Amino acid sequence: MKEPYIFQSERLGFRNWIQSDVLNMSTINADPKVMEFFPVIATHQQTEAFVKRMQEQFEQKGFCYFAVDRLDIGEFIGFIGISEQTYESNFTPCVDIGWRLAQKQWGKGYATEGAKRCLEYAFNELGLVKIMSVCPEVNKHSEVVMQKIGMRKVKTFDHPLLVSYEWLKSCVLYEIERTSC
Q1: Among candidates 104, 142, 136, 99, which has minimal Cα distance to 118?
Q2: How far apart are the C-alpha atoms of 8 and 117, rounded to whole Å?
Q3: How many CB atoms are located within 10 Å of the residue 140 CB?
Q4: How far apart are CA 122 and CA 134, in angstroms?
Q5: Residues 166-179: pLDDT tens digits?
Q6: d(CA 103, CA 155)
């Protein structure tokens, strides 16, 4: 049985993670195309640890990278949500917005729709005032989503967790504040 939805958008349901999501997310994380802009493909154990972190963060903060289902078919398609980031930089700690969807769900507007709804939740329900987003400069699809949801580019920087990966280390930082949403 799936958890009740915390909130919904027109086509998506957002919820906390359940154990059965681990296998589905592991399948998504094993897709080289999905993981193209990450240093490595996540293992099943790494995915399991990620899901546990998201469950704990939701229990503590009321937010995480939410498990997302398509409402029309009730199928898990990946995650969209907000999460705390604490890696070393001049803009952390911060709350960022991110997404990772199964490849077969790409090109349907789910990331944009879901991210807009997550921003509404963050600003209107949680009272957050600023949300950041980061992706490698080469990940133009994610950068387009950031622009579509109203974020503005702040800067380009070398990501401290990606400095060993020449093709990924140069990242863009976007932000949106509550008043501009």
Answers
A1: 99
A2: 8
A3: 12
A4: 17
A5: 989 999 999 999 97
A6: 28
